[in-house]
Amino acid sequence: YNAAIADFNEAIKLEPELAAAFYERANAYWEKKDYDAAIADCNQAIKIDPNYAKAYNRRGAAYSDKGDYDNAIVDYNQAIKIDTDYADAHYNRGVAYGRKGDFDRATTDYTQAIKINPNHARAYYNRGVNYSNKGNDERAIADYTQAITINPNYANAYFNRGNTYARKGDYDRAIADYTQAIRIDPNFAWAYSNRGAAYYDKGDDDRAITDWESVLKIDPNDTYAKESLAIVRGNAE
Fold first, then answer.
1. What's the pLDDT score for residue 113?
2. In which band, very low, low, confident or very high, does the pLDDT at 164 lie, cut at 50, 70 and 90?
3. Cα 66 to Cα 30, 69, 140, 177, distances in angstroms
4. Above 90 in pLDDT, residue 168?
5. Engineered SS bond to 123: which of 110, 193, 232, 234, CB 3.0-4.6 Å?
């Protein structure tokens, strides 16, 4: 990103009124997690072009990543006012509402993002999380499944669908989903941990032990895996 920033610096020197250069440099700063610099560049892009919806959206994302969800929502509102069919702005506003604990508004925004862009895998995934948190397991599973259909390498979607199946007592499907999450991300400690729990609930202590040992190879300080191993080994004595 440093090389990109250097290129945009030169572009801005040549054309100091080029809003797109400030916006693109803001994206690079955002990727570097330099949110204040990203906000400053978005401010400049918006000053040059007050109808620059993408700049409002990016500034909103920077505010959100700084934990300032109220200012983030103000920016997403403006982006949507400029472009009502801006799927990512609806999605991002949903994320901000979710982080504020307003899950109903978050779900509404995810639904709108999906309506605009039916292939928005993250919107399906996050809406599924909201449904799961409200105890609506069937809708959650449907949304996780759709996210996976769109993005077959969506490890978190497999993981959360597995959690939902496990909560329903469907351990075989849960194990299959955790296994798929691990195939995609071999260092997914929580997937090993929860697969171990599913094996344990099925009475397969040996596989549970193997999975919890795998967790400790990834994270030697994982308390849950240590405690689980102590319990299952204690039961075997």
1. 98
2. very high
3. 11, 8, 29, 33
4. yes
5. 110
